[in-house]
Amino acid sequence: MADDKPRLEDLAAADEERLLDKPTGLWRGAWRRLLRRKGGVIGLFIIGLMVLVALLAPLIAPYDPNEVLIGKEDVVKRGDPCVHLFGCDSEKPQHIMGVDGNVRDQFSRVVYGSRVSLSVGFSTVLVAFTVGATLGAVAGFWGGWLDNVIMRIMDVVLGFPSLLLAIAIVADLGRGIRNTLLAIAIVSIPVYARVMRSSVLAIRELDYVAASRALGASKMRILVTRVMPNALTPLVVIGTLGIATAILDMAAFGFLGLGAQPPAAEWGSMLASERNQVFSAPHLVFFPGLAIMITVLGFNLLGDGLRDALDPSLAD
Amino acid sequence: MTAPLLQITDLVKDFPVKSGILQRATGHVRAVAGVSLDVNKGETVGLVGESGCGKSTLGRMLVRLIEPSEGSIRFEDEDIAHLKGPELKAMRLRMQMIFQDPYSSLDPRSPVGNSVAEGLKIHGIGDSDERHERVMEMLDVVGLESYHAHRFPHEFSGGQRQRIGIARALIMRPKFVVADEPVSALDVSVQAQVLNLLKDLQKDLDLTLLFIAHNLAVVEHISDRVAVMYLGRIVEVTDRDSLYANPTHPYTQALLSSIPIPDPTVNRNRIVLQGDVPSPLDPPSGCRFHPRCPIAVEGVCDVEEPELLEVGDGKETHVAACHLRTGAHRHLDPAPR
After folding, report:
1. Which of A92, A128, A144, A218 could join A188 via S-S bond, C-beta 3.0 to 4.6 A?
2. Given the DSSP bridges, would you call strands B78-79 and B225-230 parallel, antiparallel or unpaired?
3. Does B177 reach chain A within 8 Å, measured CB to CB?
């Protein structure tokens, strides 16, 4: 408490200054709260690193991920990691994660794999988020038969085990990254639709929506300017966590041989192709697995951090 | 006398009650059961009643946030009860609402300047400079600073938020405003501030105000006339002074006796009502108040529904709906209790 007068005035002046300069937007406030959370910062760091690795892959990776080194270098199939720093013979070519069953540099493949995983993660969530949020908002806001039709379809989709449904979709569309991406997006639409619908249902009953209506705003205007922005917050959290799930699903598809097709460097299919050599060449499953784990962990940490940071009841 | 600004006739609102797995309507709640009320230009009418009596529903019907089931609302000689589309939108320029909860009535993601300007934007009034100017002007009128326009609702206190809500409602210069318990969510010290602001604005802007409250003391402060509501019906209407001097309906008397008097030496007969408000799903027969009425007479009050009739205290505007106090049965002996 300010008990002497000058200090009180200082405080008032500082307060005034703070109020007069550009207001802190809601997102900036959320950002600040996020940076105050250890988990969120770690998640952000991991994801930032991954994005950087994906963007700079050609600079980081010492080899082309698909280059077969047989006959070019003195390496053997599934050769152990060789790091000069850790005492590997400097005569030998350096492969810090070893060499895979097709005599390709594992490190380069893991680095390039981040491109597939991240882009799949982001784009599936983007598709599922957009479609799901729109469907959910329409269902919740207009209600009635439209709500029933949309949500019953969502219930049907949710009724299938998601991976099984996605496999069915891929089986129909054909293998490959793009189709897998589409399949993962389709099976995750209902989650976004449901969350969006329930927050829209809650928000449309609030007085500020009634106030907009009393002012003469059209339904569309209310939905877009009042309801949607307020309903998006929980979706952002789910979306972040959804990226992690999408990456895992993509890896699962790769593992099952339905996702990325060889020779594409993708973590899941890298695991799959070397799964029988777990005991003789553990490094070939260890590193792609580790990459999946760290990325997923990063998104999960960020998601948890965002959940707290975006909660408007926690003022900063 | 000139025609009233707002003329409500036999207004009814039924809410369907849904039950069963198919959510079929199995009945209805008559939240407002035939209300007639005139509001004259420039006056403040207080609408009081306990929770669930339908006063908010009535208020929201008047500004067309809830569709009326039956009856008419004549506003400036135009029946607005069933307006649609562009006519309804045009009507909204003249009629606004101030909400009870200052926390849920402002969009937390919208700077308050935008919230206040929304009406102007919707109706395409002025260009962005003019709108900005009017927002600043309005913020000043309700006692806020211009830099507040860029702030978000969570940065304000309850009283400030309520003033923002008032600014939002009044920026379009409406003629009629429904204030739905605008101070009941505020601290007592802030209540007076907001009430006085409303009172001043009403005078300055020549507003007509329907002030909904459950607190008679607040209503006394601001109203010219008071209407008392019980279970979807109006039971007494009169000017402020005679309501407090000469309350006629037993329900009004009970409400008045519940106002605390800050003087321990005053010995009063408090009328404590028995029981709860009956369910509007199945309202009592006859007079809706009879199961809780201290003076109800069997054979009359539980059979016939009383109408709003002149009380006969020399004021023709003082009407009440009670068999024992007005009309043909007025000389019946009240039931001893």
Report:
1. A128
2. unpaired
3. no
Task: Give per-residue pLDDT as tens, B3-56.
Answer: 789 999 899 998 888 777 777 777 788 888 888 999 999 899 999 988 888 889
Instruction: Specify whether the CB–CB gap between B174 and B90 falls below 8 A.
Output: no
> How far apart (Å, rounded) are the C-alpha atoms in residues B216 and A21?
44
Search chain B and give the residue with CA nearest A144.
Answer: B23
Q: Which residue of B has its CA nearest to A206?
A: B104
CB contact under 8 A, A211 and B97: yes
Instruction: Name residues 7-36 of chain A within 8 A of B (Cβ).
Output: 19-20, 22-23, 26
Within a domain: residue A262? yes
Residue A1 lies in a domain: no
Q: Is A216 on the interface with B (CB under 8 A)?
A: yes
The fold for domain B6-94+174-251 equals: Rossmann fold (3.40.50)
Q: How many domains does chain A fold into?
A: 1
Q: CB distance from A220 to chain B under 8 Å?
A: no
Angle, CA of B67, B72 and B73, to the nearest 5°: 80
Burial A26-50 (b: 16+ CB within 10 A, else e): beebbbebbeebeebeebbebbeeb
Note the pTM of the prediction, 2 decimals. 0.79
CA distance A22 to chain B (A): 8
Range of the domain at A124: 32-309
Structure confidence by residue, pLDDT tens digits, B220-252: 888 999 999 998 899 999 888 888 888 888 888
- Inter-residue contact B278 to B204 (CB < 8 Å): no
Cβ–Cβ below 8 Å for A208 and B104: yes
Q: Where in chain B are the domains?
A: 6-94+174-251
Residue B96: closest CA among chain A residues belongs to which residue?
Answer: A214
- Please indicate, yes or no, if residue A5 is contained in any of the structural domains: no
For the record, the structure tokens of A27 come out as 């997102």
Q: Rounded to an integer, what distance in angstroms lies between the CA atom of residue B123 and that of residue B168?
A: 13
